[in-house]
Amino acid sequence: MTDVYATIRERMLREQLLARGIDDEGTLRAMREVPRHLFVDDAMWGRAYGDYPLPIASGQTISQPFIVALMTQALRLTGTERVLEIGTGSGYQAAVLSRICDKVFTVERIHTLLASARKIFDKLRYYNIVAKLDDGTLGWPENGPYDAIVVTAGGPVIPAPLIDQLADGGRLIMPVGDQDSQILQLLTRTGEVTETANLECVRFVDLIGEHAWRR
Ligand code: SAH
Questions:
Q1: Which of 12, 79, 145, 146 could form a disulfide with 84 if both were Cys (CB 3.0 to 4.6 A apart)?
Q2: Strand ranges (DSSP E) for 152-192?
């Protein structure tokens, strides 16, 4: 059986990712492989590969493919890394990461989202993803340190516990700003020194927790 979605994904790669300078082999391979449509409601399958974010349950969103690729590429994964994601949402970003690292730990604060993401991970046999319900601004200290951390919700600052759980040489990416707009910040840790670069203006849903917005 030919997979029509595989053809649509090729087109997404060409028009949205390659055309905008995404050139990391692993990122492109993962975005080619992961069936993004399974992470949205089946009524939206026809729009699953469009050049925009889409709504998921509980008033949250799955990011635009280009933003997922940009964040993934910035982590410079080689296949051996332990990666922490804050904000599982649909599970799509975690799924993409899982194809090109050793293990993904992902934290979500809304139970229904976590439950449906877990179901898709099982269905796709993405067994190197573990997910838990918690306030992700506290990180997941038991499994750290992490070679890479990705926060997929926007907050006023990078939560301190996440920097503490980042390995020496590790990379962290997060949208930082106010509740209307943020800048994607890439933080690199070398020993106790951190360096931050600004990538792209973005708009994410709120990061809600002890080290972010309170509501
Ligand atoms: N990575 C997701 C994006 C989901 S939107 C995807 O690929 O679909 C951001 C998610 O972050 C939402 O599901 C929201 O509930 C979650 N979130 C917000 N604050 C959080 C926190 N403190 N801890 C864990 N998850 C949080």
A1: 146
A2: 166-177, 182-190
Residue 19 scores a pLDDT above 80: yes
Domain borders along the chain are 6-202
pLDDT tens per residue, range 47-102: 999 999 999 999 999 999 999 999 999 999 999 999 999 999 999 999 999 999 99
Counting every residue written for the chain, the total comes to 215
CB of 101 within 6 A of ligand 1: the answer is no
Decide whether any atom of ligand 1 lies within 6 Å of the 152 Cβ.
yes
Cβ burial, residue 86 (10 Å; 0-12/13-18/19+)? buried
Question: How many Cα atoms occupy the beta-carbon half-sphere of 199 within 13 Å?
Answer: 19
Q: Which atom of ligand 1 is nearest to the CA of 150?
A: 1
Range 6-202 classified under CATH 3.40.50.450: no
